[in-house]
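stuck on this fold:
=====
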Amino acid sequence: MITCYHGSPELFKKFDLSKAGDGTGIKFGFGVYLTESEASAVHYSQPRYQPLAPNHYLYSVEIPELTDDNHIVSAKPVNPSIIKRTEATLGKPVPQEKAMIGKEFRKWLGLTLVGGKKVNLESEKAAAAFLDSIGVFCNVWPQAQSKPDGLKNYAVFDENKVVVKKIEHIEVFFKEKKYLLVENSRGVVKTRCKDKRSKIETNCC
């Protein structure tokens, strides 16, 4: 399993994709947005262009390990196995130029599925559902564009593939265009397992 982080001003027991797009939009596709960078998750615990939220939470989560053919990378060619599975299920060929870049493939797939001409929430949801159905569980892109082989960000298409392991109540402050963690401000939110799928049930915050 891969350990990732998610920052939010909201306290919840499990991720709910009906809320997708409320925070950072759908630039990298429809899904649960996660990062391997704890600092990045802290920053995004504060909604953009809004007054400082009264609460901020840092979620530590686990997602499945990556294999060559269970994810797409935004700026890299799509694995041939994914292309073959897409064509077999869709019943039509994937244009070669779309297969060369993950984000273009994802956008083309969504528009093809909904019959649209402009990428929107509907087309991104359709692409995510389709990809998940053929064994592709997420979209991946670098946490820092200047470090393409460094820490990764993820958009996980199915919220049930994200397991919350820990929730921390944190405090943040703004400095040099970023929200940073206030030292010694972490407070673990008491939780207990609700069932064998390890859903988190909050007792207090």
Notes: The radius of gyration is 18 Å.
